[in-house]
Amino acid sequence: MVRLNKAFTVSLSALIPLAVATPVFAEWGLNLPTPVTPIGEGILTLHNWILLICTIIFVGVFGVMFYSLYAHRKSKGHKPSQFSHSTFAEITWTVIPTLILIGMAIPSTAMLIKMEDTSEADLTVKITGYQWKWRYDYLDSGVQFYSNLSTDRNEILNKNEKGENYLLEVDNQVVLPIGKKIRFLITANDVIHSWWVPQLAVKKDAIPGFINEVWTKINEPGIYRGQCTELCGREHGFMPVVVKAVSVEEFDAWVAENAPAEEQAEETQSGVSGGQTLVAVSAISTEDGADDPAPAIR
Amino acid sequence: MATVADDHHDHHDHHPTGLIRWITTTNHKDIGTLYLLFSFAMFLVGGAMAMVIRAELFQPGLQIVDPHFFNQMTTVHALVMVFGAVMPGMVGFANWMIPIMIGAPDMALPRLNNWSFWILPFAATLLLSSFLTAGGGPAAGWTLYAPLTIQGGMGVDLTIFAVHMLGISSVLGAINVIVTIFNMRAPGMDFMKMPLFVWTWLITAFLLIAVMPVFAGAVTMLLTDRHFGTAFFNPAGGGDPVLFQHIFWFFGHPEVYIMILPAFGIISAIIPTFSRKPLFGYTSMVLAVAGIAFLSFIVWAHHMFTVGMPLIGEVYFMYATMLIAVPTGVKVFNWVATMWRGSLTFETPMLFAIGVVVLFTIGGLSGLMLGITPADFQYHDTYFVVAHFHYVLFSGSVMAMMGGVYYWLPKWTGHMYDEKLGKLHFWLTTIFFNITFFPQHFLGLAGMPRRIPDYALQFTEFNVISSLGAFGLGVSQLLMAYIVYKCVKGGEKATDEVWDNPEGLEWTLPSPAPYHTFETPPVIK
To answer: Residue A84: which pLDDT band, with cuts at 50, 70 and 90?
Structure first.
């Protein structure tokens, strides 16, 4: 109940328009989560500005309207004026919004150009969506594995108490180095999925028959959690994404530990580039993952 | 503006009674009533499904329904609300009001009118009967994205046929509206003298004719993909899943304006009456509606920025989308300017109209945010989107229809509705609506995807609040059924004008409006 009350108070204070995006509110889940990538920071700034402008417009327009509702009531004896045109006003409220929109469009376009520049990546990871799990192929080193929801079924069915990372935990995390430009190639094997990690500000649809490109560069080490965001069937709510960002040294060590032997790597490399998916999958371990072999490919 | 030359409607109404009257009727008022009753029934059916959704989301974990059934609920809730409640509801208003507003004796094609209504109950039955098939109803979302829909069971086929029938009904209704407006206007009722509601419906009708066949084509291709070996959208056969999205949203975006433009028309009728002032900027209102309708055809891909379009495509669709804010802003400013220095009273229809202007604008502004492509990557397919489209659809279209019902109900029934209960209905609806949907903005920004039956613990509090609001919102709508029933049965006798000197031909008729009206065209000055 205490948590509920807190949330309720917070939601009320959020109705006050100026509670826009202050970091204090971020931990209460009122705004976009704290980004850990340059793109994420750019999007958060853009989002905050647009939200602020929209809020000011809203308050301004409806301030006028509510003043009118108060001052021009019949019960106060206000006599209606009969005007129905004002060329000046109509031109004004067409031109000013247009200028505001142009002001929004310029930084948005600049941001978009940055987001779409996947060139000169240090590392490429191919992500494949399946019903209902993710598969990751590190194209440079041959590391490959599936990543499944690791939340106990009994927690979902309310038989056991739910853990801290309920529904946002996996057996094999995606380990990525910080400070490197990482390119993701995203596709799917059955239906459309969408790979999203809010703190990285990366969301791209995984579409069978298509390979989408997107990139990220993570600033700080940490665990970043996300979910599939395109309805993909019965277990759509149960295929999370967990990224573990580590230093370059730790990443290299992890790769060395999990990369297949030389010959096998070549074989899998060519397998991947040849568009075949029937390759051997090595079992790997990460910190909160078990040593289970990855599930067989269907 | 207008006077009625001949106020006598003293000939007898020749029509069968009982059930046969309603089945065989070609009278625009009867058919309008049927549409509105059907719409309300579907509103309750779709609402019941929303209750299931919110009950499951009340707490984390799976409590009430299986995830597959949950997906059926979100899918059919949307289909029922869009095609069963909002669109037929708007056609109901068109049937009742357009002939009266332009001084015509009936719709131009009365038998077609009867048919376009009576398709609907069968289409709805077909859609809902999908729950009885193996595999249940459609569960791929109302957008029916391939290839997920290719996987579905027979319920998907029933949905496709239901969509075909609903589409036929809509197109027939649209043809009727266009023919009526072009040919049946009373002498002197020039286009630029038509009430704004008639204008918005005329433009809506063109949108319907343009895009419903596109949707019918898309689902037919889906059907042949499912059963006849084609591979339009099936990547396993070389098809293109993204093509389905392009075709769907080429229909889908105009579709959202099909649902909102007549609502704008209703609001533009209500606000001047209770402001005791003519509508501000009539010409710019007409141009804004036409502008919005035009833009609706060239912005569709903003629903699918995450599919991976070329940069130039993303930039184009962002700019085109942002442009919609200009004519929409003009409409909002004009409504506020209509109230400005008026003589305002706050009867139930006016409360709904003001509620729509304020809350729809919240949805409009969040829509602008969604149109900003880089930011959309974060918002896309989250509860932020769910909040956005309920602000434009519920507190836009649905609340405008509620306001319209209260506004014209005395004219339809001859009785005043219970004003106290009407106001209560408004406040309950508005308060519970905001409790339900405002927190969903936060859920979306914090990272909760839409269409999930279970969620991470950090989303619990706002989901609890949202569900509680939804239950209140659902129950409050039963009050409206009672208010309307009570008003039909009796109540204070309504005057012919009903309100304080309102503008429009409908107020020159007796209350209730006789079965046949304007058999002699009124004289428009």
So the answer is: confident
Q: What CATH number does the domain located at A123-273 have?
A: 2.60.40.420
**Residue-wise pLDDT tens digits, B114-170:** 999 999 999 999 999 999 999 899 999 999 999 999 998 999 999 999 999 999 999
- Tell me how far apart the terminal alpha carbons of chain B are, to the nearest angstrom: 6
Query: How many CA atoms does the CB half-sphere of A281 hold within 13 Å?
Result: 19
> Which of B279, B357, B438 lies at the smallest CB-CB distance from A84?
B279
3-state SS, one letter per residue, for B106-119: CCCCHHHHHHHHHH
Q: What is the pLDDT of residues B317-329, one digit of tens each?
A: 999 999 999 999 9
Q: How far is A135 from chain B (nearest CA, A)?
A: 19
The first and second tokens of residue A44, run together, are 């958060």
pTM of the predicted structure, to 2 decimals: 0.90
Among 3.30.930.10, 3.40.50.300, 1.20.210.10, 3.80.30.20, name the CATH number for the domain at B2-7+26-524.
Answer: 1.20.210.10
Q: Determine the distance in angstroms separating the CA of A167 from the nearest CA of chain B, rounded to an integer.
A: 6
Residues of B in contact with A64 (CB under 8 A): 336, 340
Q: Quick check: B210 pLDDT over 50?
A: yes
How buried is B267 (Cβ within 10 angstroms: 0-12 exposed, 13-18 middle, 19+ buried)?
A: buried
pLDDT tens readout for residues B79-103: 999 999 999 999 999 999 999 999 9
User: How far is A281 from A138, CA to CA, in rounded Å?
Assistant: 12
- How high is the ipTM of this complex? 0.91
Written out in words, the top-level CATH class of the domain with range A38-115 is: mainly alpha
Which residues of chain A have a CB within 8 Å of the CB of B308?
204-205, 207, 210, 212-213
